[in-house]
Amino acid sequence: MRFMTKTTTSSKTIAGLAATALLALPLAACGSDDAAADPAEDAAPEPVAQVDDLTGKTTAVQLDAGFVDALTSLKLTPGVVGDAALTDGALVFPITGGDVTYYEPGSIDPYVQGEIDHQGSGFSLTAGKTTVDLTNFTIDPGTSQLFGDVAVNGETAVEDAFLFQLDGRTLEPLQSGPGGTAVLTGTEVLISEDAAPLLNDTFGTKAVKPGLLVGVATITINTK
Q1: Which contiguous run of DSSP H or E holds residue 175?
Q2: What was the pLDDT predicted at 110?
Q3: Residue 41: its pLDDT value, please?
Q4: Which of 64, 109, 150, 188 has a CB 3.0–4.6 Å from the CB of 26, allowing a cystine?
């Protein structure tokens, strides 16, 4: 089974489980060929918020009822790995590092940039004697993808695999949270085209489809 692996770039973009692919439009210069360029049109917009060194808070994925029903029908039991928690139907993963810059939507594409890392946590799926661990998540909003490591019964299967597709069309505007936090919520988390066949092969089924809705993400970061 071949997984798509993450391409390393000098500057990776992010947006929480939250700020990906919201159809933000890039700026476009206009005018005739002989017109002098307006420096203001070429200048990069000022960010609304910027955190260069993330120091914590969480990404939480509220599990969709259809996903929970699918797990039940496949006799798969979800669990948590490392520092993750399963609380009130939501998988919660601590943020361990990264950076975030948030621009006015529509002023630049993508309008949330950086990276959000979740090392040392993840979730598991178990059926009988087989357990698959999905851990160490990294979000890349430039490609609307979430990457992570995969292990089967404790043995590493692949690292930096493309696990989940992110759909931010229902993303809500940036909100202020308690204790000097910022909150982005509304991004849908979907099983990727690479993760679906791996899970099917591992658990001996054909029921896991690419695009299966896992849940809706809310990312909360410290801004101080």
Answers
A1: strand 175-177
A2: 81
A3: 52
A4: 109
Q: What is the DSSP string of the chain?
A: -PPPBPPP-SS-----TT-----PPPP---S-TTSPP-HHHHSPPPPSEEESS---EEEEEEE-HHHHHHHHHTT-EEEEEET-EEETTEEEEE--EEEEEE--TTSSSSSEEEEEEEEEEEEEEEETTEEEEEEEEEEETTTTEEEEEEEETTEEEEEEEEEEEEE-TTPPPPEEETTTEEEEEEEEEEE-TTHHHHHHHHHT-S---TT-EEEEEEEEEE--
Distances in Å between the Cα of 1 and the Cα atoms of 128, 152, 154, 161 are 21, 13, 17, 12
Average of per-residue pLDDT across 46-56: 89
pLDDT at 42: 61
Residues contacting 39, CB < 8 A, separation 6+: none
Local structure of residue 26 (DSSP, 8 states)? P
Report d(CA 205, CA 116) in Å as an integer. Answer: 32
Q: Residues with Cβ < 8 Å from 75, sequence gap 6 or more?
A: 127
Residue 91 has pLDDT above 90, yes or no: yes
